[in-house]
Design a protein that fits this description.
By secondary structure, the chain is of the alpha+beta class. Helix content is 49%, strand content 14%.
Length: 393
């Protein structure tokens, strides 16, 4: 396994680093480095900057308007943008639904939907989880009934991340109740401005809104918005989930947050506590191990070998690491991490300490928010079963 980047790859890294330094707004990088809340304008603004450069669809092949980068180049791009403090690309459009449209959509659908995703102009949401259908997606109950040249959709989705901003939603819907549950699911694209679509925000403990309930009451969806074949949506969903679980690992964000954890520990005076520093060291070892796992996959792809299907492993380890670094940040800050006074934060108080850094105000909300990572995208318990079946048979 060759983990040494070639001179050409190092030159590519330098190109990305220079471009990001010149185009990433300093205020936005400040928010990301210190865990402050990002608005829709923040996230979509950065997406449009990348879209203008042709890098929002950084994993896309050239035939669909992407840069056609290798797996190594994509990794280096993710590493450099995370290191610089760029917002994480909202994945639902460019990382998740776009590959499905490319692989299974027809030419008209590709021409219709991909340009808006690539430019960052159109915000996509994910319609997978339902009340009672999370890790067990095969049990989805939202119904789509074919009537002539349209589908009538009724049902409910939940935990729809950033759905309050959505222009379009890709939806798993039930189009048949015959045979196995997986055999009756279809993949439908829904305009969220359609009559009968209602988005109800779910307010989190810190008062913010990140997830939503979405209701469908006799929503009319043109049949031309069906991706692929009716009742074959489970196949397309599995294709998408492989991208989601790999994306959830997010090793480059973990590396950046590890450095933030060290800054907080030094600021709060616990860096000299050897027992606490041991915990940071253990976390750093796991971050390095996760990165080695990612690089192992890249090395296999680069050499033309078939890499192991380790999306589940990446998801398990990456999500646990995210929980651990937010927990250690809370422990480092102690009582100062607890207040969740959004009005004070909005007025400019962020717990600043000398030197202009931002300290503790957002830590509690991050800690609570990251409790979800071992559940969404397929709970880690389910992922462990899948990994065991794959390896042990």
């Amino acid at each position: 396994m060759d983990l040494v980047f070639t001179p050409e790859e190092q030159a590519f890294r330098d190109e990305v680093r220079t471009w990001v330094r010149e185009h990433l707004p300093a205020e936005l990088a400040h928010k990301v480095h210190h865990g402050l809340e990002l608005s829709r304008e923040d996230m979509q603004g950065w997406a449009k900057i990348l879209g203008k450069k042709g890098w929002l669809g950084y994993g896309w092949p050239k035939e669909f308007g992407g840069p056609g980068w290798t797996a190594v180049q994509k990794h280096l791009f993710e590493e450099e943008t995370a290191r610089a403090g760029a917002p994480r690309i909202v994945p639902f459009g460019p990382v998740m639904v776009a590959p499905v449209i490319m692989a299974f959509g027809n030419a008209e659908q590709q021409q219709r939907f991909l340009p808006g995703i690539a430019s960052g102009e159109v915000w996509w949401s994910q319609g997978y989880s339902e009340p009672g259908s999370g890790s067990d997606l095969a049990s989805v109950k939202t119904r789509a009934e074919r009537r002539g040249d349209k589908y009538i959709v009724n049902g409910q989705k939940t935990w729809t991340t950033l759905g309050q901003h959505g222009d379009w939603m890709f939806n798993l819907v039930r189009t048949s109740t015959e045979g196995k549950p997986q055999a009756g699911i279809s993949f439908l694209l829904v305009d969220m401005k359609s009559p009968g679509v209602t988005v109800r925000p779910i307010r989190l403990m810190d008062g913010s809104v990140e997830v939503n309930e979405v209701f469908f009451d006799n929503v009319e969806v043109p049949a031309e918005n069906l991706i692929g074949e009716e009742n074959k949506g489970w196949t397309y969903a599995k294709h998408l989930l492989s991208h989601e679980r790999t994306n959830i690992a997010d090793v480059n964000r973990a590396k950046r947050e590890l450095e933030r954890l060290k800054r907080i520990a030094k600021t709060e005076g616990v860096w000299d506590d050897l027992r606490f520093r041991d915990q940071i060291a253990l976390l750093e070892v796991d971050v390095v191990a996760l990165e080695m796992l990612v690089l192992r996959v890249l090395s296999a792809e680069k050499s033309g070998k078939n890499s192991l299907d380790i999306a589940g492993l990446l998801k398990i380890k990456g999500s646990e690491i995210q929980q651990r670094y937010t927990e250690l940040m809370m422990l480092a800050a102690g009582p100062f991490s607890l207040p969740l006074i959004r009005e004070a934060m909005a007025a400019g108080w962020q717990g600043d300490f000398p030197g202009g850094e931002v300290a503790n105000a957002p830590l509690a909300s991050h800690y609570f928010n990251m409790r979800k990572t071992t559940i969404y995208g397929g709970s880690n318990e389910v992922q462990r079963n899948i990994v065991a079946q794959t390896i042990l048979g």
